[in-house]
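Homework help thread (please don't just give me the answer)

Our assignment gives two proteins as sequence + structure token strings and asks us to describe the second one. The first is just a warm-up. Here they are:
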Amino acid sequence: MYQRILVPVDGTSTAAQGLREAIELARDQKAEILLLHVVDEWRVAAGDIAAVNLDAGAKALREAGAELLKQAEARVREAGIRVQTVLLEELGVPVGECVVQRARQWPADLIVCGTHGRNGISRVLLGSSAEYILRHAPVPVLLVRAPD
């Protein structure tokens, strides 16, 4: 049923939980996985990465994203599942929109992503990539919430 599963990864425990679910589902469906990491330049601008030089901060994010993809790819390969990786850096494009665009381009049959399950003011202030993906995805979306 699902042969091409897109899994956004960002280094959070919720993304790790989503990856675990995607691996099990891919194993069951004999599907392949596309791991996607979006370099989020807003992390530099918002001060999440302390950087005097924005170029250095963006470079650090790219390197961290590449390492994250490498580790996630190893986990998927260890499970015996075909895997591809993509590191995206789309300046000014929100993460959720990048995921939806890639789901159309690849094309994915399913998107599996972790969610923090935030609501209220924390969702408004922090945004919700998962909500954007859910509302705009061209394919079914499996949201996986990490245990508290």
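The one we have to describe:
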Amino acid sequence: MGAKNTLGQWSQRLVVGLVAASVGLAALPAWAQDPADPLAQAQQARKTGDFTKAAKLLLDHLAAHPDDARGHHELGVLYAVHGQLRDAREQFEAGLRTEPNLAESRQALADLLRAEDRCPEALPHYQKLLSDDADRAKALKGQLLCQTMLGQWPAAAATCDAAIGRTQGTELGKWLTDRCQQVRTAAQSGQLSAGQMDAEGKALFAEKRSTDSEVWFELALQTEPNADRAYRLAMARLGAGELLGCHTALQQALALEPNHQASLMALATVARALRTLGTEGQSIDFKQFDEVPEQAIGRALLADDLVLARQLVAAALPTKPAVEAPPPGAVLLWLAGELALRDAQYSKAAEWFDKALKARASFDAAKKGLADASYQLNRISEARRLAGLPPPPAWLADNADLKLFVDKRRAEVRHQLRMAFDPGLHPRPALVDQVEAELPGPPPKVEEPPPPPAASKGSKGKAAKGKTSKSAKPAKGAKPAKPAKAKRGPK
């Protein structure tokens, strides 16, 4: 990306990827020390994390001084920090066209090319740096890494001999000692490097020999795992028509690098393709998972990857099984029921759970699953019986305990799946105990007020009506009598 880009365009394209240290850009160049210099200000802004300010300063500076090699270098470092390797590479190349002896830019460019698996292009830059300064440690390390990636073992051994003597007593020297031992062993055995395996796979893939290239990409991934290699393996499997294998490799790429953009985009496309295939995943070979079908399906359900789980169930329980195939086990049938529940196929789920109980009458998980499916199908009495719940008390809302049972059961299934892959987890309390512990208590009793006293006979109801008798009324003009004084006792 050139210097004419606006700040808005730059901000929109930020992708957090490789950090500066991974491409050898952690050290600042020795120039631009003047605090008033816009490049020094951009450096300071980058160091303090104000990348927007740094970008604006550099873009404005390069708009006014397009041939400033220092400005191109600083902008390249800023791009590299954010993983925008192509844009960073263009900036370093632009700076070197103006100032070919700018060692910082050449080192950074070589490291970027190596990070992009372009070692044949990176090696000349390392050799140029070492011809100018034979003791440049970073260049020695980069050259050795590229030579090992390309499988150039004799050349790598020569680099080791030259480097170890110059780096004794340093951290790089310790690293080189271990690495060079591996290099010499590989040089004697003639083994292939992961880079050479990649090269073989790429050549075959270019010839549209996807199945053959898949073998090499898989070997390279096993030798030195990274997201790019897993993605290349996914594309080879896609070319060979192995959609599920492609899906698995893309997931492996994202496990190695969660923000791997190519894999994220491809995964969405492959998932859509798998959905349209329906049950055509029946040709899946479970050997690629290194697990039995129950384990593979359990992992997919635990990861909420229903696309993968559907294909695995379709492969493990085909609609037309082979005549000599053994009958499916109760656990496999139970997992098929759990998948059907998640897909809201309640009748189908009930069928799978019922088959699981016929395969193993005492299978408690299948019994609880059938209770869940029955509840969803509004078969309440059957659901209560299967759940083992007592008759609800009169004060409880309609089947509130059964609904609570279903919610708790689904959480229990997830816990059971986790336990299958982590034996250290302890089982949960019984479901009926969990339900009873969370049920609301009975409503408080409301005490009724006592009834009013009954009226006496002969009053003909006048007292009940609240009227006073005539004798109780004082005569007209009469003053109310004063209360009598109490008699005093003897003194």
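TA reply:
I won't write it for you, but here's a hint about the kind of observation we're looking for: The two ends are 121 Å apart (CA to CA).
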